[in-house]
Amino acid sequence: MKGFRSAGGAQRFLSAFSGISPHFRPRRHLMTAPDYRAEMTIRFAIWEQITGTVGLPTTP
Length: 60
Fold this sequence. Notes:
This protein is mostly helical. 55% of the residues lie in helices and 0% in strands. It has helices at 7-20, 33-51. The chain is flat and about 40 Å long. 0% of the residues are buried.
């Protein structure tokens, strides 16, 4: 269970993580490096919009 206090906690995390994980893992072996960088830029912009972190100050 690697750090989870209970099997239920692990299950809750994994059920949420399974939907998020593919968003940040494009099929890299099918893309050129510039295409991969562009795709990841787009995916992180989408993630920032979804989580509401666009325009928030970053901590140093």
